[in-house]
Structures are given as structure tokens and as C-alpha cells.
Amino acid sequence: MTQFSARVTVRLKFGVLDPQGKAIEGSLNALGFEGIASIRQGKIFDVQLEATSKSAAKDTLKAMCEKLLANTVIEDYSVELVA
Amino acid sequence: MTQFSARVTVRLKFGVLDPQGKAIEGSLNALGFEGIASIRQGKIFDVQLEATSKSAAKDTLKAMCEKLLANTVIEDYSVELVA
Q1: Contact B45 A40 (CB under 8 A)
Q2: I need a surface site. Which of A71, B20, B25, B69 has the fewest CB within 10 A?
């Protein structure tokens, strides 16, 4: 078993309303920041896991996203091994 | 003014307890996933903004992090221009 470091990014799908992002945009405007066209907020998970191979690690991470980390109705995920 | 796409990542500093990450770890174990050494959750902001130059865009994004997006007492941030 090898130890892998992975980064899982979960973002709202294109077209899904992001009220949190809109609120941040409003706050930044209120703070005087100009020129912001849009802000969308997502989640990132830094995962350390053991697996037999890179592809096994990716498969496990994708299964984690499907089952728990992402709501695939409104969110997209991407999995990236960093070490 | 040029339009820039940026990705801002905000993570808890090393050593800061991450109860949300621990809860996710527990849930994944309960779902039958094995070999997870640790999970830490962070935030990602996809920002579209206008600025006069790359360095001006980066400076604006760093200021946004310092003022609103990150709690610099417990969180680190990184800013990356993607286009």
C-alpha cells in the first residue's frame, strides 16, 4: 500500500444559483473592491489515503465523491493526485 | 482593463483542528472506505475580475483575502490566476 495525497474539488454546476457567492460579491463591493464580475464558492478536500496504485486511489476518491463529498445533482467534482 | 479568472484557495493552517474534516473522515469510514489517513476541508473561490494588469489583479485578490475571504489567524490563502 502506498500513501497518496489527493485534492478533491467540488463546485456548483454551471447555471446553479450560488447565493453564498453572491453574498460575498456584495460584501466585497461594500468594502470598496471594484471590477468583480462574479464569485462562486466551492469546497476543497485535502485527502491522505493509502491505496495499492494511483488508479485505485483515483477510483476510491471518485466513489467518495459520488457517495458523500459531492451532491451530484447540483455539483461537479474533480479529483487530482498531488503526490 | 482586462478580464482575469482567478482561483483563491483558503485552507486551515497546519495544526489547527478541523472538526468538519474529522466528521467527514468518520462518515467515510462508516460507509466502508478504508485507508484514509486524514481529510481536511477548505474553501475555493472562483473569481472573475477586471484589472489593469496581472500583478494588479493579484494584489486585489490578496487584499480581498486579507479583508474578507480568509481568517488569517487560523487560515492560509493562495491566489492563482488561471486565465
Answers
A1: yes
A2: A71
In this structure, which CATH number among 2.60.40.1260, 3.40.605.10, 3.30.479.30, 3.30.1280.10 belongs to the domain A2-81? 3.30.1280.10
Q: What is the average per-residue pLDDT within A10-15?
A: 96
Contacts of residue B7, defined as CB under 8 A and 6 or more positions apart, other chains included, come to B44, B45, B46, B47, B79, B80, B82
Cell of A37: 464580475
Write out pLDDT tens, residues B51-74. 999 999 999 999 999 999 999 999
Residues B45-55 pLDDT 10s: 999 999 999 99
Q: How far off is chain B from A42, nearest CA to CA, in Å?
A: 5
Separation in Å, CA of B34 to nearest CA in chain A: 8
Comparing alpha-carbon positions, the chain B residue that sits nearest to A29 is B64
pTM: 0.93
Contacts of A24 in chain B (CB under 8 A): 45, 68-69
The domain limits of chain A are: 2-81
